[in-house]
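Q: what does this look like with nickel (II) ion bound?
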Amino acid sequence: MLLTIPGLLTSDELAEARRLLASAPWADGKATAGYQSGLVKRNQQLPEEAPQTQVLQRLVLTALGRSAAFQVAALPLRIYPPLFNRYDPGMGFGDHIDNAIRMPPGGRGAPLRTDVSATLFLADPADYDGGDLVIDDTFGSHRVKLAAGDLVLYPASSVHRVEPVTRGSRIACFFWVESLVRDDAQRTLLYDLDGALGNLRRRGLAGEPEMVALTGIYHNLLRRWAET
Ligand code: NI
């Protein structure tokens, strides 16, 4: 499932993020790449230990925590501390699949399985050319370039790339989610069922006995599929 969540950040949060990023000590992005993706990765990242990174991480995690759309779509068990990257002209990231397992920064805590990949766009799309995130799945290639403050979620199992930037700077936040439900098809079924139930509730049907049954089916599927 490829899902965009518009307006994850408020305009105040976006302004604060940009203020922090303006003084950030950018470093070579190969630091967090595996061997295969390191061959095609040309960008800059904020070091995990930079003070700006830690303030930005809290800002993004707070926004994710209040987003019902994110919670329902990703069913997060654990979120890798968000990272921040920047593509200047000539930089891009060729086709790759994100590593399946990531060690938490500093080796603290258990390894995290990456089920869902996420990109939170922080630059205004009018301020740069190129830099589209292109995600391949069995239905073809999907081109994603969102407004600043918008989030896209996609299966971490997808081949994807960031096309070269030709003008300006593409600045974004990216992270991975270990989901309660590792399988994308199962997560999608739960998301669709939850959405249909929400629509029925909005039509005033919450009191119908079928709603009790269908809500029960949602939870019983989640109980069957969730790993905690
Ligand atoms: Ni990637």
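The domain at 3-179 is CATH 2.60.120.620 (Jelly Rolls). Helices lie at 11-22, 35-38, 51-66, 68-74, 184-202, 209-225.
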